[in-house]
Amino acid sequence: MDKSFLVKMFGFPASLIHGDTLVLDRWFWLKRHLPETVNGERLIDIGCGTGAFTIGAARRGYTALGLSWDERNQRVASERAGLCNAPQASFEVRDVRSLRARQDLVDKFNVAICFENIEHILDDRKLMRDIVGCLKPGGRLLLTAPNYHFRAMTQGDMGPFPTVEDGSHVRRGYSVGMLAELCAETGLIVEEVSYCSGFLSQKITQLLRLLSHIHPLFGWGITFPLRILPLIFDRILTPGLRWPYFSICLEAYKPRFTTTAPIEAAGAASISQKL
Fold first, then answer.
1. Containing domain of residue 141, as a range?
2. Is 248:173 a contact under the CB 8 Å cutoff?
């Protein structure tokens, strides 16, 4: 099947429903934390996949650059940007582990997004430093990663996690403390830690993954009508069942001014958590 068939038919929203329901959840979280702009602000998407969030950011007014090591994904992303009338979205093939080599990207971006990518990288400290290096003073990082306390949807979610970077998750996920630690080390001020992808999203994604073993289109066709349910019920069901959200979501800020260590520590300690 044409990777962009649905996008050709229905435009940008279709780019959010090609895979797991969790992708749509992340988009709704991103929209809440990424104001529309007409100021020509620049955004970098670290590990952009097939470009849905890069394109979405461009449609919100940002000059958006998506980076991924996968040439095929970048071709698909570029095609979809054209289909979605998002000329401000561009894509480059780049292994994000070598981000530091791109000196032309240093201090250039108002926003960096990194969604479900850091858990694939062994040296997450280096990746965070490199992402922060791309931000201008006053820039913002929006990041999601698996919540350390999630409940496994399929056997592979439980590990064992490899000790080499083979495209799989190299760690289970992140806790609030782990994200605070990374931010403190890179000088970021944590503004909010929240969560997305609740009980129903996870159960629908679990069903999709299982049925896709028969055929991907079969899994997608069966689960597509169910995707409306999390939008209506997850905010009630997930806390009611005390079910852990799948993704932990971080909003952090690169200081505009040179700060002292006590101020940085205070910023890291003043995390607010929201569901």
1. 5-274
2. yes
